[in-house]
């Protein structure tokens, strides 16, 4: 377990949750100092594209776009050594970014990029004290340090990145018959359970966004991020790690999602919420907190994560939540054919710009519960932002990932990868 002041720990983890540089109005930023490693060569595009295209079923909607945009992402954002670069944040790398690359690589059947990305992550994001590894989770932030050298600049982990990475490892072990990927996933699952889940006094277990010291400000309060909850992943984890009760996290995740939606008069999920363990009820975070209870760039991912649980595991809880909590957005869309990128819990627009990442995540949900609306979002808001392999700002890695993940049909994933059978 990590030992550091709670206030400092909380502040250090906030950066991962603020992805608002991904909206349409963002201006490209060109950092002055970049690591001296060339990106994957652009010339490789033509020879890789047919393979990626072939690995998607011919019936896949937007098949060419999905293959092309993955090929483009590899070249623009992933160095030849497997490091994923966030150009809008001083060329840093994050565990989240590395995990998105792993997940996308296995979903489109790109074992070479998967292996490169995993190798860099394991070699550079491991927690070490005195040169010895302390656990198997990844430090969430890597970049240029104050002394000018490159390395880990925040040793804390963020559980969404580790969840996505572990999910990718399990799927990769099944897709490519790589038992060593499964062994690594099992190792990481032990540490994820021990370091990032916690039981309240009545015995119910919850997923924390990171270390206990950062997200448990007092004995009766947990700070939680609903967009980290991944019921589909917990179901897959339960298949390979029967020693821990991963399905209990499915139950507690839906409990928090449903209870925290009540904080919003229009039923929207929040970026951050506080759970009172004495009452089992959710609360908004204090106004003084740097973490905010509002619907914004983190909360978008709730739509996508629950759509996967609904599509892959036919979860009635997922479908019910998606039907109920998207009502306000559906009404707004019907009325004005646009959605603000940030909305407060009373349903008031906080900004006058939009976000492609929101439309793509909502598209995934609507595909499951309201296909006609999904098609409107696609035609009016998502496809028009796509040009030559990139959605909107070519430096916005967050947008590229959420747009691609939202558009990839869940049913293109072979069933054997989800069940191991």
Describe, in plain words, how this protein is organized in 3D:
- The protein has 421 residues and is mainly alpha-helical.
- It contains 17 helices and 12 strands.
- It has helices spanning 6-13, 45-54, 63-77, 95-107, 111-124, 159-175, 179-196, 212-215, 231-240, 247-261, 300-313, 316-325, 327-336, 356-369, 371-382, 397-407, 415-419, and strands spanning 93-94, 126-129, 132-138, 141-144, 150-154, 197-199, 205-207, 221-224, 273-276, 282-283, 386-387, 390-391.
- The strands form 5 sheets. The chain has a 3-stranded antiparallel beta sheet with strand order 1-4-5.
- Strand 11 and strand 12 (390-391) form a beta hairpin.
- Helix 14 (356-369) runs antiparallel to helix 15 (371-382).
- It is globular, with a radius of gyration of 20 Å.
């Amino acid at each position: 377990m990590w030992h550091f002041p709670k206030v400092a720990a909380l502040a250090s983890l906030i950066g991962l949750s603020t992805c608002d540089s991904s909206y349409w109005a963002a201006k490209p930023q060109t950092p002055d100092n970049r690591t001296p490693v060339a990106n994957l060569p652009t010339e490789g595009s033509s020879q890789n594209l047919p393979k990626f295209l072939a690995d998607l079923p011919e019936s896949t909607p937007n098949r060419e776009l999905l293959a092309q945009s993955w090929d483009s992402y590899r070249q623009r954002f992933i160095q030849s050594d497997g490091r994923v670069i966030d150009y809008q944040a001083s060329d840093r790398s994050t565990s989240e970014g590395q995990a998105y690359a792993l997940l996308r690589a296995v979903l489109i059947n790109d074992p070479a990029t998967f292996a490169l990305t995993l190798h860099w992550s394991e070699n550079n994001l491991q927690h070490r004290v005195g040169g010895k590894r302390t656990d198997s989770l990844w430090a969430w932030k890597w970049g240029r340090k104050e002394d000018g050298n490159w390395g880990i600049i925040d040793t804390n982990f963020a559980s969404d990145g580790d969840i996505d990475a572990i999910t990718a490892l399990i799927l990769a072990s099944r897709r490519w018959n790589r038992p060593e990927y499964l062994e690594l996933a099992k190792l990481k699952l032990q540490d994820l359970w021990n370091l990032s889940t916690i039981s309240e006094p009545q015995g119910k277990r919850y997923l924390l966004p990171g270390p206990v010291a950062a997200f448990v400000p007092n004995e009766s309060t947990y700070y939680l991020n609903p967009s980290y909850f991944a019921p589909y992943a917990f179901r897959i984890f339960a298949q390979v790690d029967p020693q821990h009760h991963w399905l209990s996290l499915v139950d507690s995740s839906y409990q928090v999602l449903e209870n925290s939606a009540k904080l919003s008069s229009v039923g929207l999920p929040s970026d951050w919420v506080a759970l009172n363990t004495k009452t089992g009820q959710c609360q908004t975070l204090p106004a003084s907190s740097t973490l905010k209870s509002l619907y914004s760039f983190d909360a978008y991912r709730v739509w996508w994560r629950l759509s996967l649980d609904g599509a892959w595991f036919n979860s009635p809880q997922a479908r019910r939540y998606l039907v109920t909590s998207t009502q306000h957005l559906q009404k707004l869309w019907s009325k004005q054919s646009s959605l603000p990128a940030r909305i407060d819990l009373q349903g008031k627009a906080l900004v006058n710009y939009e976000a492609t990442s929101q439309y793509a995540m909502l598209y995934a949900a609507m595909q499951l519960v309201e296909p006609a609306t999904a098609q409107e979002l696609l035609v009016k808001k998502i496809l028009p932002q796509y040009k030559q392999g990139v959605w909107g700002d070519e430096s916005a890695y967050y947008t590229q990932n959420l747009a691609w993940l939202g558009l990839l049909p869940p049913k293109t994933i072979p069933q054997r990868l989800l069940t191991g059978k």
